[in-house]
Structures are given as C-alpha cells and as structure tokens.
Amino acid sequence: MELRQLQYFLKVAQKEHVTQASEELHVAQSAVSRQIHQLEEELGVQLFMQKGRNLQLTPVGQLFCKRVDSILKDLDKAVVEVHEFLDPEQGEIRIGFPHSLGIHLIPSVVAEFKRRYPNVKFRFKQGMFPSLIRDVISAEVDLAFISPFPEKHEQVEGEVMLTEELYAILPPNHPLAKEESIKLSQLKDDKFVLFSKGYSLRPIVWHACLEAGFTPKIAFEGEETDAIRGLVAAGMGVSILPEMALFQTNPLQPARVRISEPKVTRTIGLIHRSDDKLPRVAQAFRTFLLTYFGLQQQNGNQKNTPVGS
Question: What is the DSSP letter of 64?
Fold first, then answer.
C-alpha cells in the first residue's frame, strides 16, 4: 500500500468523481483509476460503487475513508512539526474566519504578524459559524476567528478577543441619516436588509430588534457585507452592521448612525481544538493576538479557557 494510493483514494472520495479528482491532483484520470483499482485488490474489498455519473463510498469504504483522512492529517502535521523544529519561523498557520472579518481585521493582524515573522505562511478559509466550528474540530484549520464567541462547546476552547459595536446603516436620504445616534425602535417601520439564515450577524440584529419592541420587516437578504451595504446605500432598506464592516470599498456608501438603545454588540473570539496542542507557529500567532488585543496581561500564563467556563 502506497501513500499515493491513499491520497488518490481520499481525493476521489471527496469529489465523488474520478475526472474531477484527477484534475485537482494534476494527474491522468487513468492513473487515478489504476491506483484505486490496485488499492481495492490489495484490500480485497470494493471501496466505491457507481451512483449515476458519480462514485459513492461503500460502507467499508466509508470506514476506510475516516481512517485514511486521519492518517493523512497526522502525516501533514508531522511534516509541519519537522519544518518548525528546523525553523520555527517558517511554518504555516491555517486560520478560519467569517466574511465580515476579512475586510479589515484579518488583513491588519496578519500584516502586523508578518512584519515580525516574514517567512511564516498563512492558509485562509472563510466560513459561517457552524462550518468554522467544524473546521476547527476536524483540524482543517489550526485557529478560527469566530463571532459570536460560542457560549459552550466541549471540543473547542479559546478567548474573546474583542467586543465590537454595531451601527445602524441608512440610505443617505433617510430622515434619520444625519442624526448622531438613534433608538433602534425608531426604525420599526423601515424595511431591513439582513444577512441570510445561517450567518451569525442575522440573529444578533433580529434579537436587537425584538428587544427594541418590534419584528424587523425584511426587504432583502444577502450573504456579504458589501452587498448589504450597497443595497442600503441604494435606498432598498436599512440594516445593522459591525463597525469593521463599514470601511469604504466603493463610492456608494450608506449613512452610519450609532444605536443608543439597546446597545448592539458582537463578541469576536479565537478558538482551537481543546484536545490538541497547537503547532508552535500557530501558538506564536495566538500569543501575538493576545498582546495585539491587549489580553496578554489579563490572561498572564494561564492555560486556555474552555469555552463557556
């Protein structure tokens, strides 16, 4: 059994298609098929079965896939640890984050870290709240910025890095656009542009409106802060966005107004697996972030805090 066979098998299992797997592996389709066939012959079992135009793992193939996935991840981790042992400042940090943090926060902290450790590489993965949790648990990423910070979870731990204020954003010609601050209840008759279901900012906005005594009327739903900001600027409704999502990226901008009542905030935390030791370079980045956000003195040399404790 060869490492190449396991890599080809896992890629076909992920893509459920030999052609797509071969394209990502940059090898001939026939080579992938041959390696899978040899692996099945050596194991004496059928790993895949045909389902329409795709391939599907057999029950025994599913069992084998879980083990192979774990083995290859451990192998990747071992390679990283060897490289870090030779040069701790030349490793790779795999980090996940929600879209709203990609506009300003992630570029800022990464740029500052790279100034100190120019040879460190980053691999980024964007996701929504549930997928970021899954990516940390499955070791797809070493660390993940997440918002809101999860109240309780047995498999991840971390720290709240900051609490961010959310602002009302209004069309430039809105009657309240020039106000310094407003009560959220003043927007009860407006239509809202909200994030789609599954995005963590949606329930924050929804609960704030309920606290203000009304249920928001939805005009449009979106999946990116740029789209929501643009729709509001175009007069399609009002919304609530975090401050770091309001950095100007195009000429068409909504008005930004502080919400005095109720105070609307979100927590932004950094999480990692609670049952696993971080790679040295990822731990260095976490330590840097604690200092960057002013938490180092507060946390001192304490161990990581389980989420919810």
Answer: H
pLDDT in tens, 66-79: 999 988 888 887 87
Gap between the Cα atoms of 42 and 20, Å rounded? 24
Q: Are strands 92-97 and 54-57 parallel, antiparallel or unpaired?
A: unpaired
Burial class (CB in 10 A: 0-12, 13-18, 19+), 299: middle
Neighbours of 140 (CB within 10 A): 17
- Of the listed ranges 69-83, 88-102, 171-185, 252-266, the least confidently predicted one is 69-83
Q: How far apart are CA 5 and CA 34, in angstroms?
A: 9
What is the distance between the terminal CA atoms of the chain, rounded to a whole angstrom? 45
Q: How confident is the model at residue 309 (pLDDT cuts 50, 70, 90)?
A: very low
Residue 130: exposed, middle, or buried by beta-carbon count in 10 A (0-12, 13-18, 19+)?
exposed
CA 301 to CA 168: how far, in whole Å?
A: 39
pLDDT at residue number 86: 55
* Structure letter (DSSP) for residue 128: -
- E strand intervals along 109-216: 121-126, 143-146, 156-170, 181-183, 191-195
% of the chain beyond a pLDDT of 90: 61
d(CA 175, CA 132): 39
Residue with tokens 């696993």: 276
Q: What is the dihedral of CA 190, 191, 195, 199, to 10 degrees?
A: 70
Contact 274, 156 (CB under 8 A): yes
Handedness of CA 148, 154, 156, 162 (dihedral sign): positive
In terms of Cα–Cα distance, which of 137, 135, 130, 132 is closest to 154? 137
Question: pLDDT at residue 172 above 90?
Answer: yes
Q: Are 150 and 286 in contact (CB under 8 A)?
A: no
